[in-house]
From TrEMBL:
InterPro entries: FAD-bd_FR_type (IPR017927), Fe3_Rdtase_TM_dom (IPR013130), FNR_nucleotide-bd (IPR039261), MRET (IPR050415), Riboflavin_synthase-like_b-brl (IPR017938). It comes from Nocardioides currus. Gene3D superfamilies: Nucleotide-binding domain of ferredoxin-NADP reductase (FNR) module, Translation factors. Its main location: membrane. Its cofactor is FAD. GO terms for cellular component: membrane. Residues 220-320 form the FAD-binding FR-type domain. This is Oxidoreductase. It is found in: Membrane. The keyword Lipid biosynthesis does not apply. The chain crosses the membrane at residues 12-32, 52-70, 90-111, 131-153, 165-183, 195-214.
Length: 455
């Protein structure tokens, strides 16, 4: 790994953005070329025309949001799962809004622009047009996904329940396919358009099957992971070490996470995302889990020899994204787990020429004691910030009460913070406060690498 990897990832992000923009521009041109602008002269024809356009845009964005969550390696490395999830959410809401507009406007247009005829026209279209019943079922599935993605709804759902409901997005996209390809004239009116849409759908489906299904199955059959040890780090926090075959061929890096299923316990079918808390050594993988309910609460009861299924590794909180040899790591509680693994890997990569500092805020001052000592022995400067947050707007622990600001303390501890790559991991609110101070300290946005716990 060299710092040039960061430039390569930037190029991939730009290329992906340009590709999406080109696809949206292309379907817009097809709409114009098919008389879309000319149809704006009449009320009913304008409704139909704009409805066709919104349908085309919605189709592109629908495929895009599926690809974003297909775990495509080149996108995972370039964006990181946090950023992909945020873009996926934005694209998803946008595609649904455009799809809703498509349904309303086209139906309204078929009803000669009369709002009173809209319900009857929708019923007639559903019963008489090919694949419309499938499309309606797909739309209902996407409504379920959108409703459960609203922040207020997510607060009331367990992660496992939300994740299961979110899988209906694949069903919604799949059920919409026949309607679009059989009745959408802008999709099939020329050979080039037919090739474009069938290729887009085919490649999207292939990405999901390859990276969400085939690769995890192959890796689990190859590595056959089992629980080797379970150790309590602090009250409510345990570390689980797993072993398996040929783990030196698993491309896991310090700072990444995997989705874990521990067989033999209740709820094993539901995957939980946990970060590696120790750098992979080719023989073992270790995670550290805090009891927060659901699957995490039963982690402490795992027994040696239990089979483990994983998906991943994922995430961009790795040495790959750095730009230089000076690094600062800032974590809170169990959020420091991936940073411990990353610090361990960095100490080996950078050697004597590197400069790594780790700031670890530990509310209970009990977790990762042995790990922090080992890192300090390897030349990493470790600063422990004990206690709960000292105030609502502060990311420092209460042990640092005083008249100084968080920013002043950060500059005191790490005087050259603006010249470092900075990795941040912890709860969303806390991480946002840290990132805000990093920006005030002059750290370039491209040098801030943040991963938060949220979904």
């Amino acid at each position: 790994m060299t710092p040039s990897r960061a430039s390569l990832d930037l190029a991939v992000r730009r290329a992906a953005t340009a590709l999406l923009g080109a696809a949206l521009a292309l379907v817009t041109w097809w709409w114009i070329d098919g008389g879309g602008l000319g149809d704006l002269g009449g009320w009913a024809s304008a409704l139909m025309s704009i409805g066709r356009w919104t349908g085309l845009l919605a189709s592109v964005l629908l495929l895009t949001q599926v690809v974003l969550m297909a775990r495509v390696p080149v996108l995972e490395r370039a964006f990181g799962q946090d950023r992909l999830a945020a873009i996926h959410r934005l694209v998803g809401f946008s595609s649904f809004t455009l799809m809703l507009a498509h349904v309303v406007l086209v139906t309204w247009g078929y009803g000669d622009g009369s709002a009173l005829r809209w319900p009857g026209e929708l019923w007639d279209l559903t019963l008489t047009y090919p694949a419309m019943l499938l499309a309606d079922a797909g739309f209902v599935a996407l409504v379920l996904v959108v409703v459960t993605s609203i922040r207020a709804a997510r607060r009331r759902l367990r992660y496992e329940s939300w994740h299961l409901l979110h899988l209906y997005g694949y069903l919604g996209a799949g059920l919409a396919l026949p309607h679009q390809l059989w009745t959408g004239q802008e999709l099939v009116s020329s050979t080039s358009r037919t090739v474009f849409w069938w290729s887009a759908w085919g490649l999207t489906a292939a990405a999901v099957v390859t990276w969400r299904v085939a690769r995890p199955v192959a890796r689990n059959l190859r590595h056959r992971l089992v629980v080797e040890d379970v150790v309590e780090e602090a009250p409510g926090i345990v570390s689980v070490t797993v072993s398996g075959r040929g783990l030196d061929r698993l491309p896991a890096r310090g700072g990444q996470w995997l989705s874990w299923r521990f067989l033999g316990r209740e709820g094993w079918t539901r995957a939980n995302p946990y970060s590696l808390s120790a750098a992979p050594d080719g023989r073992h993988l270790r995670i550290t889990v805090q009891d927060s309910g659901d699957g995490s609460g039963s982690t402490a009861t795992l027994v040696r020899g239990s089979r483990v299924l994983v998906e991943g590794p994922y995430g961009r909180l790795t040495a790959r994204s750095r730009h230089g040899d000076r690094v600062a790591l800032i974590g809170a509680g169990v959020g420091s787990a991936p940073l411990l693994a990353l610090a361990e890997e960095l100490s080996g990569l950078l050697g004597e020429g590197g400069d790594v500092v780790l700031l670890h805020r530990d509310r209970d001052a009990g977790a990762f004691v042995d790990d922090l000592r080992r890192l300090a022995a390897r030349g990493i400067r470790v600063l422990t910030l004990p206690g709960r947050r000292r105030a609502a707007g502060s990311w420092l622990g209460e042990a640092h009460a005083g008249g100084f600001s968080d920013l002043a303390a950060l500059r005191h501890w790490v005087g050259d913070i603006a010249q470092r790559d900075v990795y941040v991991c912890g709860p969303q609110t806390w991480a946002d406060l840290v990132v805000a101070d990093l920006r005030r300290a002059g750290v370039p946005g491209s040098h801030i690498h943040a991963e938060t716990f949220g979904w």
